[in-house]
Amino acid sequence: MPRMTAKIVMVAVVLLTAGAASFGAEETHHFSYSGATGPAKWGSLEPDYSACALGKTQSPIDIKEDAAKPADLPPIRFDYKPVTLKMIDNGHTIEINYEPGSFITVGDKRYELLRFHFHKPSEEKINGKSADMVAHLVHRSADGQLAVVAVLLQSGPINPLIRTLWAHLPHLKEKGTETVFDTVSINAADLLPQDRGYYTYGGSLTTPPCSEGVTWFVLKGRTAISADEIARFARLYPMNARPVQALNGRQVEVSR
Q1: What is the per-residue pLDDT across 140-167, written as a single tens digit (0 to 9) for each?
Q2: Buried b or exposed e, range 14-50, using 16+ CB within 10 angstroms
Q3: Alpha-carbon torsion 234, 214, 202, 252, what sign?
Q4: Separation CA 11–CA 5 (nearest Å)
Q5: Fewer CB near the last or first residue (10 Å), C or N of the chain?
Q6: E strands, the chain, in order
Q7: Which CATH superfamily is domain 31-255 in?
Q8: For the whole model, what pTM was predicted?
């Protein structure tokens, strides 16, 4: 009888632990792109998400070309290197973590590439129109400032980098768990368009906690991605774009 009681206790502990793990996973993904946990509700989901509702410099935005101020902006110097593929399906998008050593330099400011991920359609709009998708390349400077390079993706020929990424999607068994593909090398430079002129403005993260103080560089050129590659992403995430946010007097600059 004591042995039976011990077994019952062990089963109960396992069930409770599994329940706690499931609850933690739900908490990690405590927002969505529609319904009761959609963008209109983000600001009230968690105390740390208040900027999503109250912030005055939020992203994404609708960039109006005729309102953007031409400026003598420094070019973005890209220094991206090949790395081993490390990929996560985090419940909101497909994200690729980047090893240290790749960076951009804008003027005298250097930002290390941390990761990149995708949205469908593009979150930022140009003259009221979204691109088919967008890649957001997230960087951080030595003093902790974030900068995001947005690469608009438009339907066209097959994109070799995207094809490589999507070929490994079935291996992402658990959302939130990083999968490392030791035999696969990628280079974020393969996402970049030839035209690297850009729009820039001060904004925020586009997902909770919607932290502000983020510098945005939206490239004017676009990168091709095939219709099949767009459809493949859409099977996982049909729509994962936050609506555009009010400018609130911000000035968007555009490189000459």
Answers
A1: 999 999 999 999 999 999 999 999 999 9
A2: eeeeeeeeeeeeeeeeebbbeeebebeebbebeeebb
A3: negative
A4: 10
A5: N
A6: 62-63, 69-71, 76-79, 83-89, 94-97, 103-106, 109-119, 125-126, 129-130, 133-141, 146-155, 179-186, 198-204, 212-225, 253-255
A7: Alpha carbonic anhydrase (3.10.200.10)
A8: 0.88
- Distance from C-alpha of 123 to C-alpha of 106, rounded to nearest angstrom: 23
Q: CA-to-CA distance for 201 and 195, rounded, in angstroms?
A: 19
Q: Please name which of 56, 220, 215, 49 lies closest in space to residue 140, comparing C-alpha atoms.
A: 215
Q: Which long-range contacts (CB under 8 A, 24 or more apart) does 26-29 make?
A: 28/91, 28/176, 29/90, 29/91, 29/92, 29/175, 29/176
- Rounded CA gap, 78 and 136, in Å? 14
Amino acid present at 168: H
For residues 205 and 59, the answer to whether their CB atoms sit within 8 Å is yes
Residue 26 in tokens:
């739900």
